[in-house]
Amino acid sequence: MSTPKQIQLSHGGGGREMAELIGKLFFEAFDNQILRQEEDAACLNMTGPIAFTTDSFVVSPLFFKGGNIGKLAIAGTVNDLAMMGAAPQYLSCGFIIEEGFEIAKLKEIVETMAAELHKSGAKIVCGDTKVVPKGCADGVFINTSGVGRIIKPGISVHSVRPGDAIILSRDIGCHGAAILAAREGLELETELQSDCATLWPMVEQLIAANLELHAMRDATRGGIAAVLNEWAKAANVGIELSEEAIPVRDEVRGVCELYGFEPWDLANEGTFVIALPQEIAADAITVMHQFCNCDQARIVGTVTDTNTGKVILHSPWGSKRYLELPAGELLPRIC
């Protein structure tokens, strides 16, 4: 019998086909001793405080410049742990696969996930596979949950305080712009691609430098506008930003002008925001430039005790306006 080139309903039926798919694809890519036990639940040995997160990924298209749904699933979950000062350790992974999906594409997604796992040292230790009839999904959906050991306690939105500097790790909007370009078939003259990346190696260096990190957040859906508005409201502070200091690629600006978006509203998948005391902000920038591959990291704003709950954007021309929380769904299925 020839090996099928597409996912069949039998691949989710619990029989021989499912066993072969899991054994030859998932186990080979994610191989580790815990996963190989093949128990109903992974038995983990963890001590001290842990961070726990979960996310589902339904991005369209599944493959885009700079990554695919698999890279997004691993990086997204690892980054949520990293933003809490937690070293990523264990992940679960659930696949919902549409009947007829090409096994070669599934293999590419899984191999990308395995490569991304190596960047943080995390392991997939349990998972699940479901196959649904053709037309009941859109190729493949992935759910990942993760746990990590907190090695830098106290990082929290509630720790943001007046006098803090706001640092941005890199330019913004690349993921949202890249996804939009892929959907609309835009042929850009430059190689704009998603910023999708695992952030733990960068955060690890910041922690190793013993910096007083008050808050961190990866600026995913809603972009930096969503992150900073959430911080301002949760910590009851004001945040003032310099528009001129926020790095935005020309290609991203072009896409925004074409479709009427603002770059600070666009999703990112490898960009994060930090709040920390103003007096150590320069030290943090130095660490990020020298050890974190964050050449574009810069101070973009400050935290104040005025205009609490609001984010104010200062333009290069001396005017200012409120940077509102994005309303509505700018780009559905962005991650």
Alpha-beta content class: alpha+beta
Provide the spatial order of strands within the biggest beta sheet: 8-10-7-11-9-12-13
Query: How many strands, which pairing sense, and closed or not: the largest β-sheet?
Result: 7 strands, mixed
Distance between the termini: 38 Å
Structural shape: globular
Helix fraction by DSSP (H/I, runs of at least 4): 25-40%
Write the layout of secondary structure elements.
Elements: H1 16-30, H2 33-36, E1 50-57, E2 63-64, E3 67-68, H3 69-82, E4 86-98, H4 103-118, E5 123-132, E6 140-150, E7 164-168, H5 174-184, H6 200-208, E8 215-218, H7 223-235, E9 238-242, H8 250-259, E10 272-277, H9 281-291, E11 298-304, E12 311-314, E13 320-322
Parallel strand pairs: 4-5, 9-12
Antiparallel strand pairs: 1-6, 2-3, 4-6, 7-10, 7-11, 8-10, 9-11, 12-13
Helix pairs in contact: 1-4, 3-4, 5-8
Short characterization:
By secondary structure, the protein is α+β, with helices and mostly antiparallel strands. It has nine helices and 13 strands.
List the main descriptive attributes of the protein structure presented here:
4-stranded mixed beta sheet, 31% helix, 335 residues, alpha+beta
Characterization of the model:
With 335 residues, the protein is α+β, with helices and mostly antiparallel strands. It is 31% helix and 24% strand. It has helices spanning 16-30, 33-36, 69-82, 103-118, 174-184, 200-208, 223-235, 250-259, 281-291; strands at residues 50-57, 63-64, 67-68, 86-98, 123-132, 140-150, 164-168, 215-218, 238-242, 272-277, 298-304, 311-314, 320-322. The strands form three sheets. It has a seven-stranded mixed β-sheet. The protein has a four-stranded mixed β-sheet with strand order 1-6-4-5.
